[in-house]
Amino acid sequence: MPQLINVDIDTVAEPDVVFALHDHPLHLIDLQRKKDAIELFGLSKAFSCFACHQVRHRFVRYCSSCDVRCCQQCFNDAHQQQMALIQQTVASQISVIEEKQRQFTATSTTSHLVGMSLPPVMAACLAGDFPAVREIVEKNEFSGTLDLEALCEHAAYKGRTVLGLAAGSGHRKIVMLLLSRGARATACDNLGMTPLMHASYGGHVEVVDELLFGGGLDIDQASFSGYTALLFASSAGHAACVQRLIAAGASTALRTPNGRTALIAASLNGHKAAVEILLLTLKPSEVNAIDFEGYSALDAAISRGFAGVESLLRHSPNQ
To answer: A Gene Ontology molecular-function term (predicted)?
Structure first.
């Protein structure tokens, strides 16, 4: 298999952005369909994959700058390895943060939470210190000195309000308190993500419930990356959040910028429980929908080797 490139974890925006085989974009070309592309790049209808050295006749991942060609299977395998590496790195970072958060106490100064130098109320929202948040809010309630819409300046949470910080960290009681004090559930951070999107992506179903109960949300609002709350929950495999969002009226027909539906996103990442929930609500046309590269949810499951998801899709009454 090809060697993986080094990835700066801070630059990873979406789960399917990093392509591990090559440091230039590898465009997907169907040699049996895209005659213009074949003529433009001087490709033939057969090629030797630079990774496995097998002769292939249809789908090629091609870099016109370096004349690199690889087959779809090798591309998927290396991409999956790259994502596993990223997830291990993220998990390691999260475990360090969580350990430091456990050391946080109500008597300690919240401004030094995990070395972030955050304002006390923001640090308390991240740590889940409800008593500290309540004390700060109540102390400043009548003086008007506390701005609940102030934006976090730390790079990891750029542009989030206190509600966005608490929602993304899964702290339901703090979310309830902030909503009761008028914090805006529609506020977006620098990625265009709302508190509902952060809670959905993190799998914090109780927080999702509170935000939906508060009302006033556009449940199908998309972030700057084109993901809705349902697409975030589906791609991360949080079945309970998927169920809540659909019950609240989230559209299952909306797509990511590369044309993936919630079902395709869940299938691509092997999230069987989320796929099962989605199949209960989708029409046959939605189950069989294809993305902009021509792949359906079933194709995605097969290409990644997720047999359980593949079986669900093959035997779905809506298939």
So the answer is: ubiquitin-protein transferase activity
For 43, the 3-state DSSP assignment is coil
Token couple for 114 = 């995990």
The topology under which CATH files domain 105-217 is 1.25.40
CB 230 within 8 A of CB 218: no
Backbone angles phi, psi at 63, to 5 degrees: -110, 115
Report residue 140 as tokens.
């400043």
Burial of 134 (0-12, 13-18, 19+ CB in 10 A): middle
Could you read off the pLDDT of 158-207 as tens digits, one per residue? Answer: 889 999 999 999 999 999 999 988 899 999 999 999 999 999 999 999 99
Residues 6 or more apart whose Cβ sits within 8 Å of residue 153: none
The superfamily (CATH) of domain 230-319 is Ankyrin repeat-containing domain (1.25.40.20)
Give me the sign of the Cα torsion angle 93, 3, 23, 74: negative
Residues of the chain with CATH 1.25.40.20: 105-217, 230-319
The number of residues in the chain equals 319
